[in-house]
């Protein structure tokens, strides 16, 4: 029983991996513990978002990912 965590953009570089698995169910505190201190610090920033099962969470601290779901870590987007 696992949740797949996907690191995107600069968060992938910071984590040193594209994805990893964590035990399900996975909540906010579990996610912070699973990704390591550097990525966890970035996740606490307001501009970094989470998507769970394909939906961006309005309140990322309300994360509750179940077995087989994917949590994507979405870095800030720049553009013009």
From TrEMBL:
Pfam families: ThiS. InterPro entries: Beta-grasp_dom_sf, Mopterin_synth/thiamin_S_b, ThiS/MoaD-like. It comes from the Bacteria. This is MoaD/ThiS family protein. It comes from Qipengyuania benthica.
